[in-house]
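Long-time lurker. I teach an intro course on protein structure, and each term I like to show students one example going from raw sequence to a predicted 3D structure in token notation. This year I'd like something fresh instead of my usual example. Would anyone be willing to generate the tokens for the chain below so I can use it in lecture? Attribution to the forum is fine with me.
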Amino acid sequence: MSRVGKEPIVVPSGVDVAVSGQNVKVKGSKGELELDLPGGITVAQDGEVLQVERPDETRENRAFHGLARTLINNMIIGVSEGFKKELEIVGVGYRAAAKGNDALTLSLGFSHPVEVKAPAGVVFDVPQPTQIIISGIDKQAVGQTAADIRSLRKPEPYKGKGIKYVGEHIIRKAGKAAK
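-- Reply from a regular --
Happy to contribute to a lecture. Here you go:
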């Protein structure tokens, strides 16, 4: 039995969950998300509690059991609280500027500025030129957007210059030894 999959999901007040066959729709104050469940996984709704169930003990259904429960739980958290990732830009002359809520202009030491468009449901905020906050209701979209921006200029190990997550520790290397 999946340890993650057998845990019940408590639906907070203000969040509506509609289950119809293999489709789960979650609606809250921040928006609406929809998921088609994989395989034969089903969701039983009992008032404010959801229970994810699998039809049998096959390897595939065991694998999808915990995944489906986690995806539904992330949808509920997303529409009620939302998700955010914070990035930090380190380096002389490296900076970010917002172009509305859905675009960024990054100066990362290249010969040209880098333009980044936000996917649907993702919002950028730039409180300081060296800080980017990515927020939205879809955990996967927020995380992937943050990873895509970080990959534009990964932190390098000698001076630590680049884009990193807030709180991320960059392992530094010693430079050349002087004679």
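Some talking points for your students: The chain has two domains: 9-80, 83-165. The two ends are 62 Å apart (CA to CA).
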